[in-house]
Amino acid sequence: MNKKKAYLLIAIGAALWGIIGLFVTYLNKLGFSSIQIVTIRAITAAFFLLFYTLFKDPQRLKIQLQDSKYFIGTGIISVALFNWCLFSAIRETSISIAAILLYTAPAFVTIFSRILFKEALTSRKILALVTTLIGCALVIGIFPDVSGSISLYGFMLGLGSGFFYALYSIFCKFALRKYDSLTVTVYTFVFAAVAVTPFSGLSSIFPLFSNPRVWLYIVGLGFFSTMLAYTLYTKGLNAVESSRASIIATIEPVVASLVSFLVFNEKLNLFQHIGIAMVLAGVLLVQEPSEVLDEESSLLSK
């Protein structure tokens, strides 16, 4: 796979993550708690992925028992703990603060990738990282309004969400050395579902599932914003450095802000428009100059 296609897959995956708030908001309004939504997300994604893989190529479901460590990493340590930290941070602080702390993830990925994979820490990456982090702060609306303070516990939870979110790219890199991207994604959510279901309390809200709208939102959450998003992101990660992928994925809050504006009529201010531009600029900056030139040449030849 060429890098241009890999960047596109990662960007589409991140955009699909960006619309998750649409389904989560409606499910919350219908009476589901955060941990229950996380569990529904994991279970439905695992179901869709298993069904798709059984239909397409059952051989991809074969893994060695000793390799479970990879999926404990991606599914439990990353996906399950990232969600727990994020929702706890939202409760302890606010949505805006939790979101901006979540997007410390690219910084963690860049550091981990340098240590574990010896990926070069270029000035271009650093500039892209700083640009996207500032852009995220502007989009989410926490900057330039920096009023208020948060507890140390809330701050650590927020950083924890970014830390565990970052670990998905890292654990994936190890798993992808041995398994196909689809296999990695399937077992990520199988392990996540097994880990979170016992603590979800889903059995106490069975009557809510009689509402047809619930199933509509569940399909959107489990298929589009989870199965498809993670499949595309993981596939793109095959051909792109973890640090680059994590920076490209910061278009997620941009999409989330646009969804809020278009669906929930939340207005975008000047700083948010600037933030969107900065995040997109960061995505372009993370490409090597030669890749950008190749892309421009390709466009000119069409």
UniProtKB/TrEMBL annotation:
What's this protein's family per the entry? Belongs to the EamA transporter family.
EamA domain: residues covered:
5-140, 153-286
- Name of this chain's protein: Threonine/homoserine efflux transporter RhtA
The principal location of this protein is: membrane
> Which InterPro entries does the UniProt record give?
AA-Vitamin_Transporters, EamA_dom, EmrE-like
Localization of this protein: Cell membrane
**GO CC annotations on file:** plasma membrane
